[in-house]
Design goal:
17 helices, 83% helix, mainly alpha
Length: 463
Amino acid sequence: MLQTKENKMGVMPIKKLLINMSLPIMISMLVQALYNIVDSIFVAQVSEHALTAVSLAYPVQNLMIAIAVGTGVGINAFLSRALGEKNFEKANSTANNGILLGLFSYVLFLIFGLLFSKSYFTSQTSNTQIIEYGISYLSIICIGSIGKFVQIVFERLLQSTGKTFYTMITQGTGAIINIILDPILIFGYFGMPKMGTAGAAIATVVGQITAAILAIIFNLKINKEINISIKGLKPDLEIIKNIYSVGIPSIIMMSITSVTTYGMNNILNKFSSTAVAVFGAYFKLQSFVFMPVFGLNNGMVPIVAYNYGAGNKERLTKTIKLSIIYASCIMIFGLILIQMLPEKILALFNASEDMLSIGIPALRIISLSYIFAGICVVASSIYQALGNGLLSLLTAFSRQLVVLLPTAYGLSLFGNVNLIWWSYPIAEIISLVLSVVFLKHIYDKKIALMERQQKSISTAANR
């Protein structure tokens, strides 16, 4: 009887539903962003070299998140659509195959952490202190990444059925544990050894594993709309293909950030390691602005996918409009905050005078891109929710590899590090143009078609 009951994504008023779905995720992702910032704040107290090492490790961490979240996007889109179509067997198979894909992804990073951490850092710097800090941090993060992959997959299962409140609990608990353990393990409080960057990595891994365990428990005890079982953990190539048809473009799209960051680190390293530290600090800070928008998107995707599967155009379009408005407001708030308080923000990272001289103009220039970013981020998730992940990939590829990185390199040739930061607003303007074009395309090809199909069904029924 429970499986025939209409899901709230098909009946709850859209404003209330979007807030109901998104707010818990936004809060939990804000906490996630907070612990990312706190992580770097504590590491910066060790030394600027330690902060630089963690900054250089970011592309690998981002790649890890890209694979986990990208796979989760595919799971989310097709599981929610299956529920909208009342195809519960397909929904269960999607959930179980998603778990298998998460475990397989972990194995890849386990191998990387064991074999390739050192070669990764030596490819970017010859500073032995930075290399030492970096290896101890990244190897632990990769070897212990099973928590991250399991956490994200099982949280996506909860999101797909509208139970986003529980993801707030899992992410919040993991983040709080990380924040508590950070100073204890980094500086050696309460009888613990002083572990520096290795302590920061251990705190992160412990928090992720705790969140993963909670996510598993919530799915088994509360998420009754899908059935997860050991027997169901069998590969279904058709389901895997469906997940990755949306997931792979999303993975590639997010992985492009790793390539771009790696490239930017190498461009900035030609000026100084301090410029790299500034860039790393910015990435931690910008997550505090972007994470709520990503949380909004995580709440939006299942609503859009569900109502697309149910053929409800009005609810779908209203969800999209509200999401764009809310995302733009969040980004503008972030812009104002960074423009007004760059020096105080950088002071959190124990910034030297050299770091402030590079960091203040960097934050002010890069944050100008936020004016356009809200629409672009939401548009990307709309494509994914409607099964057109390739459009997201094209936008990300154009923004970062065609515009951002070449522009940054070209501007670096003038010998002024401050010019490099202008590559971000330039790239975001190009991304906005593409987003408008692609949104019109997907509206004409998919959303408008829903209206014509509904009219045809109505006409046939009247006859």
